[in-house]
From TrEMBL:
Residues 122-223 form the Metalloprotease TldD/E central domain. Belongs to the peptidase U62 family. PANTHER family: METALLOPROTEASE PMBA. Residues 29-91 form the Metalloprotease TldD/E N-terminal domain. GO terms for molecular function: metallopeptidase activity. InterPro entries: Metalloprtase-TldD/E_C, Metalloprtase-TldD/E_cen_dom, Metalloprtase-TldD/E_N, PmbA, TldD/PmbA_N, TldD/PmbA_sf. This is TldD/PmbA family protein. GO terms for biological process: proteolysis.
Length: 448
C-alpha cells in the first residue's frame, strides 16, 4: 500500500519531463500524472459474476510556445525525451490560442492542508464478495422481491501528481469504497426495478450491506402496479434527493464558465441577478475535510476556497479555470479539472443549501402533486433552459404519498423552475453534489 501512495518517483519523472520540454524549446509546461487503483466484485443470485482489478499511472505533458499549445499523453515506461520533443514539435505547428496558459504564478498554492482523503484500509476481494452477497440476500429477503439484477462492491483510490515549469509541485490521493444492489419485484410486464447504494471515502463509514439491500427491496415493492395520472398544467412536483442531486447538476452546468464563454448557458447574462428564489444559496467548497469531492489544489496547482456561488438567490460566481477566466476577463477561482490533456472548470463539493421545513411537512403542504423518484431521458436544453423528462414516482393526495406513478412527463423551463424551488431540510452531504428534497410549483405533467 505504501508504495502505491508514495508519489515521489512520479514527481521526479514529471519534473524531468518539464526540464526536457524546456530544453526542447518550450516557453512553459506542466506535467500531470493521474493515478488510479481499483478492484470490484459483482454477484447475481448468490454467484460471483465478475471480478475486476486495475491500476494505472497516466502521464500528460502540456507545453506552451508563445500563444501556441500542445498536449501529449503516455503510459508508464515511455521515453521522457521523445515525449517532450514530440510535444514541442506539435506546439510549433499548432494554431495560436490567446487564452491557453499556465495559472499565474502568484495564484499557485504555496502550501495546502491535509484533507484526510485517503483511507489505507486493505479490502480483500473476499471482503468485497461477502459484502455483495449480503446486500443481495437482504434485498431478496424482502417480501415481494422476485429477482435480482445484481449486487456489487468496490474499493479503490485515485489522485493527481502535478509539476509546472514555474515552481509548483504537488500530489494527493483519495480513496473510495462502495456497495450497491439492484432488484426486481413483480412478474412479466408488471415487473419493476429499483436499487440502493452507498459510497464513501472511508471504508468504516459505509452503510451496512444488509441495510442497503433491505432499502433496495423496500423501495422496489412500493413501485408495483403503477398508474398513470391525468395531464395537468399547474402541478407541484417534489424531487426526491436522488433526483434533486441531478437537478442541482443542471444549475452547476449553467454557471460553468466554459459554457458561459461558449454562450451555451441560459444564465450567461445573469451575473449579479436573481436566478433562484430569495433566501436560497448554492455553495461550493473544495476544502471540506473528508469531503467526497475535496481536493487540496486544482488541476493547475491553484487552491480553491469555499464560494457561495448563488447567495440569497443572486448569482455571484462562475466556475473558472485559468484559460476560461482569461476568456471572460476574470481570474481563476481554483476550479480547473484535468480531463485527459485539457483543463476545464468544474464544481467540487457542491450543495443546494437546505431550507427549514421537514420533507414530510413539505409533502403535506402540497396537498395534491407528484413525488418524483426517478427521471428518464435527457430532455434538458442548457442553451434555452427548456426541461422535459420522463418520470416515475408517487402521487401525492391530501398531503400523503398514495399510489405509484409511471409513464408521465414533467416539463417547464429551468429559469422558472429555479425561481419556484422550495427546499426541505434533509440534505445529505456525503455526495459530491448534495441537495435536500425540494418542491417546484407550476410544472406541466403529461399523463394519460
Amino acid at each position: 500500500m505504501s508504495s502505491e501512495i508514495d508519489s515521489s518517483t512520479l514527481l521526479s519523472r514529471a519534473s524531468q519531463l518539464i526540464d526536457l520540454a524546456r530544453k526542447a524549446g518550450a516557453d512553459a509546461a506542466d506535467a500531470v500524472v493521474v493515478r488510479s487503483r481499483s478492484q470490484s466484485v459483482s454477484v447475481r443470485l448468490g454467484k460471483v459474476e465478475g471480478t475486476e482489478s486495475s491500476e494505472s499511472d497516466d502521464f500528460s505533458l502540456r507545453v506552451f510556445i508563445g500563444k501556441r499549445v500542445a498536449s501529449v499523453s503516455a503510459n508508464p515506461g515511455f521515453d521522457l525525451q521523445a515525449l517532450a520533443e514530440r510535444a514541442v514539435a506539435m506546439a510549433k505547428v499548432s494554431p495560436e490560442d490567446p487564452f491557453a496558459c499556465l495559472a499565474d504564478e502568484a495564484s499557485l498554492s504555496k502550501s495546502y492542508p491535509d484533507l484526510q482523503l485517503l483511507d489505507t484500509t486493505e479490502v480483500s476481494s473476499e471482503m468485497l464478495r461477502e459484502a455483495s452477497l449480503a446486500a443481495e440476500a437482504a434485498a431478496l429477503a424482502v417480501k415481494g422481491v422476485t429477482n435480482s439484477s445484481g449486487a456489487g462492491a468496490s474499493a479503490g483510490m485515485g489522485g493527481l501528481v502535478l509539476v509546472t515549469s514555474h515552481g509548483f509541485e504537488g500530489s494527493y490521493m483519495a480513496s473510495r469504497f462502495g456497495h450497491s444492489v439492484s432488484v426486481i419485484a413483480g412478474e412479466g410486464t408488471g415487473m419493476e426495478r429499483d436499487y440502493d447504494f452507498d459510497s464513501r471515502l472511508y471504508y468504516a463509514e459505509l452503510d451496512d450491506p444488509a441495510e442497503i439491500g433491505r432499502r433496495a427491496g423496500e423501495r422496489v415493492i412500493k413501485r408495483i402496479n403503477p398508474r398513470q395520472v391525468p395531464t395537468g398544467k399547474d402541478v407541484t412536483v417534489i424531487f426526491d434527493p436522488r433526483v434533486a442531486r441531478g437537478f442541482v447538476g443542471h444549475i452547476a452546468g449553467a454557471i460553468n464558465g466554459a459554457a458561459v464563454a461558449r454562450k451555451s448557458s441560459f444564465l450567461r447574462d445573469k451575473m449579479g441577478q436573481p436566478v433562484l428564489k430569495s433566501g436560497l444559496s448554492i455553495t461550493d467548497d473544495p476544502l471540506i475535510v473528508r469531503g467526497p469531492s475535496s481536493r487540496p489544489f486544482d488541476g493547475e496547482g491553484v487552491s480553491g476556497e469555499r464560494l457561495v456561488m448563488i447567495e440569497d438567490g443572486v448569482l455571484k460566481h462562475w466556475f473558472l479555470s485559468t484559460s476560461t477566466a482569461r476568456e471572460l476577463g476574470l481570474e481563476t477561482n481554483g476550479r480547473g479539472v484535468r480531463g485527459g490533456t485539457s483543463v476545464s472548470p468544474s464544481s467540487t463539493n457542491l450543495a443546494l443549501e437546505p431550507g427549514d421545513i421537514a420533507p414530510e411537512d413539505l409533502i403535506r403542504s402540497v396537498g395534491n402533486g407528484f413525488y418524483v423518484t426517478e427521471l428518464i431521458g435527457h430532455g434538458v436544453n442548457m442553451i434555452t433552459g427548456e426541461y422535459s423528462r420522463g418520470a416515475t414516482g408517487f402521487w401525492i393526495e391530501n398531503g400523503e404519498l398514495t399510489f405509484p406513478v409511471s409513464e408521465v412527463t414533467i416539463a417547464s423551463n429551468l429559469k422558472e423552475m429555479f425561481m419556484r424551488l422550495t427546499p426541505a431540510n434533509d440534505i445529505d452531504r456525503k455526495f459530491g453534489v448534495a441537495a435536500p428534497t425540494f418542491a417546484i410549483e407550476g410544472m406541466t405533467l403529461a399523463g394519460r
